[in-house]
Design goal:
By secondary structure, this protein is mostly helical. It has helices at 2-23, 29-51, 62-88, 91-99, 101-112, 119-136, 140-145, 150-172, 178-199, 211-237, 240-247, 250-260, 268-283.
Length: 287
């Protein structure tokens, strides 16, 4: 069951990247992130009350709460960097770098969480790394065409924070109802996002957001919330070294939609890299 939830997380996360890309075109990325987080927070707590887990708050230990907060802070950092990168660069360039956090997360899961490693997992991890490298390396002519390389810096930071999010979240959510854990983490992300907005004085731009941007930002918040609920339920029941790579298959959805909807080009090399990533991820499911 947790494997299906992990695939569900990947699907909704993939759609999120496209909706967010459209939504942040004419909106400051930090402000858009803060708005999306409000939607996710409401969505998360509605689920908490539906399943009746709000009464379990007092059962959360201090250690679990600390790791949930740290995980939320890492998530906030990852989001702020990721959506800034999306605003500056193409989806099919930013997403592969963000998803490269898979390899780092797996290594941390093996080292810090004591999850076992087999030859199949090792080969799968190597394939994911090779495929990611093929997708993020560009020909010289393509690099010269890029006017603003800041997206690369933000995408790399997003990947680092994302890997920390998964490990901290795995520890923090142990023994905690997954929907409740997700809702608590979202509070931390919301506070962090709006602090950034207020410090940068972007709150005054709320009035200037057009209707189309509002719609796509809100929908991206809903898909993110759905992805989170699937992801952390899967993370609670399954192995982080398998759940995380499956979740990162959202790259397939993101690139497919970026090609169809946003008309972004994908090279043969990138397509081959994508196939290698998928192959490596599927290998991780072999017991």
């Amino acid at each position: 069951m947790w494997v299906l939830l992990a695939f569900g997380s990947a699907f909704f996360a993939g759609i999120t990247a496209i909706l967010a890309k459209i939504g942040v075109r004419n909106v400051d990325s930090n402000l858009a992130t803060a708005i999306r987080t409000i939607i996710i927070l409401i969505f998360s707590w509605i689920i908490v009350f539906i399943v009746g887990s709000e009464n379990m708050i007092h059962q959360i230990s201090g250690q679990n709460l600390m790791f949930l907060i740290l995980s939320g802070m890492a998530t906030g950092g990852s989001w702020l960097c990721y959506f800034k990168a999306l605003q500056l660069g193409d989806v099919n360039k930013v997403t592969p770098i963000d998803k490269s956090s898979t390899v780092l997360t797996m290594l941390l899961a093996f080292i810090l969480l004591g999850e076992s490693i087999t030859w199949i997992k090792f080969i799968g991890m190597c394939l994911i790394g090779i495929g990611t490298y093929m997708m993020i390396t560009k020909r010289k002519v393509e690099i010269k065409e890029i006017r603003d390389n800041r997206w690369l810096f933000y995408a790399m930071l997003s990947a680092i924070f994302a890997s920390l999010t998964s490990i901290l979240g795995k520890v923090g959510i142990s023994g905690v109802e997954s929907n409740l854990g997700t809702a608590i983490r979202t509070i931390v992300v919301l506070i962090m996002a709006w602090v950034v907005v207020l410090v940068s004085k972007k709150q005054n731009e709320l009035k200037g957001i057009d209707k189309k941007s509002w719609i796509f930002i809100c929908f991206s918040g809903i898909t993110t919330g759905t992805s989170w609920l699937c992801y952390y339920r899967a993370l609670q029941k399954g192995l982080a070294s398998i759940v995380v790579p499956i979740d990162k298959l959202s790259i397939v959805i993101s690139i497919l939609f970026s090609y169809v909807i946003l008309r972004e080009k994908i090279t043969k090399k990138s397509f081959l890299g994508l196939l290698i990533i998928v192959t490596g991820t599927l290998l991780l499911l072999i017991k």
